[in-house]
Design goal:
- Its main location: membrane.
- It holds the Pfam family ABC_tran.
- This protein is an alpha/beta fold.
- It has a domain at 3-90 and 159-241: Rossmann fold, CATH 3.40.50.300.
- The chain is 38% helix and 26% strand.
- It contains 9 helices and 10 strands.
- It has a 6-stranded mixed beta sheet, sandwiched between helices. A 4-stranded antiparallel beta sheet has the order 2-1-4-5, covered by helices on one side.
Amino acid sequence: MEPLVVVDHVNKHFGELHVLKDITTTVHKGEVVVVIGPSGSGKSTLCRAINRLETIDNGTITIDGKKLPEEGKELAKLRADVGMVFQSFNLFAHKTVLENVTLGQINVRKRSKADATKRAMELLERVGVANQASKMPSQLSGGQQQRVAIARALAMDPKVMLFDEPTSALDPEMINEVLDVMVGLAEEGMTMVVVTHEMGFARKAGQRILFMAEGEIVEEATPEEFFTNPKSPRAQDFLSKILTH
């Protein structure tokens, strides 16, 4: 398997707080890595560091063999290869659903409006909201908005997709419609790093679990191993709390 994202001895502090402690891990092409752990364990910071929304103190992150640049045009170019879906949907409120999905294609990927529109409609169809294309984001449910956000990220043809707790802001009945889209992506071989509290998704779609606590990767295992036989006391404790409810 070919490495796509390589995180090598990465450290990050917020003031006194050491949020990422010497993190080293590799995500291979076509792999779905699910990052789980208690709140404040550094999961989201790791996710955001991969496309440099968070700077790091030291260590390196490479994407498809290229080191993450500090800033400027090179960073924008590399970021286009890294799709990101957040807790909040971050759609442009004053643009239609269709415009949200064509904008980056036209501005960053330099596609013609016609090509961008065609691609956007294909993706909106794929995530099940093509009939909402002319609406404004505020007219959509949270689940629909998050699916548009996924389509928007996919429209850039990213090499890897990062999901930072994509369902945590949604009402319970909308969570599955978003997870179903993500499971579909995983099945199609999209490389994904997913920070989530949804253990069902982690078991079903994840190929590898990274369990983080207090800024460290405490355990790495397949979902089967992790959920049935966690090795570390920290993971055992975490799972006993969440799997009994």
